[in-house]
Amino acid sequence: MKEVIHAVEALGIRFDELKRSTDSRLIQMQESIDLQLSQMRESTGVQFTQVKESIRILYWILGIIGSGVVAGITIYLATIR
To answer: Dihedral of CA 41/42/43/49: which sign?
Structure first.
């Protein structure tokens, strides 16, 4: 009977060790996932900023070209009359 009690206690101790080990691994995995998400957010933010800057430059270029076209048409129409 004592052997059964010792075996059950040993299983209980082993179960506690496995539970602590599993909890530790889960915490490590969660920290790793959090870090990866944080890095992805930062990278996405940088990319978004670059896209916004590219769009801003494109609008400037289109504005300059558009102004030039309008000025050219105006000069052309003025010389025709």
So the answer is: positive
Farthest-apart Cα atoms in the chain, separation:
118
The token duo for 69 is: 């076209």
Taking the C-alpha atoms of residue 81 and residue 76, their distance in angstroms, rounded to an integer, is 9
Global model pTM greater than 0.70: no
DSSP letter string, 27-72:
HHHHHHHHHHHHHHHHHHHHHHHHHHHHHHHHHHHHHHHHHHHHHH
| Cα first-last separation, the chain | 118
| Separation between Cα atoms, residue 52 and residue 44, nearest integer Å | 12
Is 57 a residue whose pLDDT tops 90? yes
Separation between Cα atoms, residue 32 and residue 26, nearest integer Å: 10
